[in-house]
């Protein structure tokens, strides 16, 4: 320091021991320099950024790097770093507060975020969108797309949904008050081919041929009855056999056309055999049972073709009743606004149809030969055919098999009582008691009547569902 000059005081005074060199004196005598702003500093070189701590001071071996300066320290103006001495060593007498000088306010080892005085903001939880489908009908439409595409009208879709367990309560979850309104929306929304619909096929002259087919059994039975009346001996037997074959063919024709026609594959073959057995018992069962109970049979037994003739003539009104039931049921589907409403109307319609047929059969049996067993058999056959046509052939076949087996068991029990085994003589007691009280005709009446009542109870529930009327 030259003589007469005031010693340097303050933060700009050098702190290193020893005499000042000429370069330091020139630096002190120069005017104060204002450091440029941080955003105007030039780009750093590679040497300034490689392996340099945040404080700008490279720690010596065995020392820890000092913490970065605080925000308040960064705001203080700093002077540019001094150039290295002539010998190439950096000047350690730089003023504190400049770049490269250690900050005495920041203690080494402190938390970097705490020193900086700022903490990262906590992540804001993003509300997850509620899961749900704004259009629940669209999901149902994709799930039952095949049903909706092949349906010819909304009623078929409603029947399909109802067959899969849909109720009006289920439809409420899809924002509809009943299954029918839901089916209407599905039918309207499912796209169908843009090709124009085929023009309606004009009705052929033979479209109503089912009427002739329904009249065929009555005509065959009437011709057979006339032939049996005017013949005797072996000729009468031949006429009876030919008439039986003709009546069988006419019945098969009647159930394959018109209202009695079941869907493809919807008939149980065993049901035909049991139907023929029941009809045969109506003709000759009472006479056979009378002879068996008296120790026979001892030759030909009495035949009663009158009830069979009445049953054959009743095929035509039965077909008309079945057609009326099918058409009215489909109309009720269109008019009903709920499954419960349709079920109530369908049950009433079924009971009315059966009653109408029983009235017609009663009149026809009164003209030929009235038999309560034939009346019960007529009701059983009508209900069995209605169930078969509307998609329940197994139930119908089981009912016919039960009735036929019960009649066969009545005959077999009387014959088994003749076996000389202790206890077997009591097998004929129930049948003998019934015949002694009400006559041989009571057996088919009780058997067919009980089976018809059970089948009616089942049909009341089965045929009151919309799915039973899906096919025209």
What can you tell me about this protein's structure?
Helix content is 56%, strand content 0%. 28% of the residues are buried. The chain is elongated. The model is unreliable at 35-58, 69-117 and 194-206 (pLDDT under 50). It is built from 19 helices and no strands. With 472 residues, the chain is mostly helical. It has helices at 22-29, 46-49, 71-74, 112-116, 136-143, 145-150, 154-163, 168-172, 179-189, 209-229, 233-255, 269-293, 305-313, 315-335, 339-367, 372-389, 393-416, 429-438, 442-462.
Short recap of the structure:
The protein is mostly helical. It has helices at residues 22-29, 46-49, 71-74, 112-116, 136-143, 145-150, 154-163, 168-172, 179-189, 209-229, 233-255, 269-293, 305-313, 315-335, 339-367, 372-389, 393-416, 429-438, 442-462.
Largest sheet: none
In whole angstroms, the N-to-C terminal distance is: 122 Å
Structural class: mainly alpha
Percent of residues in helical segments? 55-70%
* Apparent shape: elongated
Low-confidence regions: 35-58, 69-117, 194-206
* Oligomer state of the chains in this structure: single chain
Strand content: under 5%
Task: Please work out how many helical segments DSSP would assign.
Answer: 19
- Per DSSP E runs of 2 or more residues, the count of β-strands stands at 0
Mean pLDDT across all residues, rounded? Answer: 74
The string of secondary-structure elements, in order, is HHHHHHHHHHHHHHHHHHH
Rg estimate, integer Å: 53 Å
């Amino acid at each position: 320091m030259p003589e007469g000059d005031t010693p340097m005081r303050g933060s700009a005074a050098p702190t290193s021991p020893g005499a000042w060199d000429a370069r330091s004196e020139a630096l002190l005598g120069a005017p104060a320099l204002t450091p440029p702003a941080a955003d105007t500093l030039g780009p750093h070189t590679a040497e300034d950024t490689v392996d340099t701590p945040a404080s700008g001071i490279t720690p010596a071996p065995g020392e820890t790097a000092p913490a970065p300066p605080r925000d308040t320290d960064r705001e203080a103006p700093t002077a540019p770093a001094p150039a290295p001495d002539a010998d190439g060593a950096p000047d350690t007498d730089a003023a504190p507060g400049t770049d490269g000088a250690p900050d005495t306010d920041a203690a080494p080892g402190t938390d970097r975020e705490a020193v900086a005085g700022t903490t990262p903001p906590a992540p804001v939880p993003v509300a997850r969108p509620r899961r749900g489908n704004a259009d629940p009908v669209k999901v149902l439409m994709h799930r039952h797309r095949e049903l909706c595409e092949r349906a010819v009208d909304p009623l078929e879709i409603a029947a399909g949904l109802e067959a899969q367990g849909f109720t009006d309560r289920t439809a409420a979850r899809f924002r509809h008050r009943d299954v029918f309104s839901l089916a209407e929306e599905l039918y309207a929304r499912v796209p169908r081919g843009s090709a124009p619909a085929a023009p309606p096929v004009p009705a052929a002259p033979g479209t109503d041929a089912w009427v002739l087919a329904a009249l065929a059994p009555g005509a065959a039975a009437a011709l057979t009855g006339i032939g049996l009346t005017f013949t005797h001996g072996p000729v009468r037997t031949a006429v009876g056999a030919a008439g039986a074959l003709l009546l069988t063919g006419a019945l098969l024709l009647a159930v394959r056309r018109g209202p009695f026609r079941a869907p493809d594959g919807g008939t149980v073959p065993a049901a035909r055999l049991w139907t023929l057995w029941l009809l045969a018992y109506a003709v000759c069962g009472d006479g056979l049972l009378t002879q068996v109970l008296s120790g026979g049979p001892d030759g030909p037994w009495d035949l009663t073709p009158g009830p069979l003739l009445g049953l054959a003539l009743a095929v035509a009104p039965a077909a008309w009743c079945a057609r009326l039931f099918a058409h009215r049921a489909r109309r009720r589907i269109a008019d009903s606004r709920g499954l419960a409403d349709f079920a109530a109307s369908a049950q009433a319609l079924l009971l009315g149809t059966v009653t109408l047929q029983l009235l017609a059969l009663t009149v026809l049996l009164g003209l030929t030969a009235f038999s309560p067993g034939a009346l019960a058999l007529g009701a059983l056959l009508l209900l069995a055919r209605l169930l078969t046509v509307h998609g329940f052939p197994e139930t119908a076949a089981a009912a016919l098999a039960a009735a036929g087996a019960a009649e066969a068991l009545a005959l077999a029990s009387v014959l088994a009582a003749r076996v000389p085994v202790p206890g077997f003589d009591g097998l004929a007691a129930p049948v003998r008691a019934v015949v002694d009280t009400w006559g041989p005709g009571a057996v088919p009446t009780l058997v067919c009547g009980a089976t018809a009542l059970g089948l009616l109870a089942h049909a009341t529930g089965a045929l009151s569902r919309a799915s039973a009327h899906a096919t025209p």
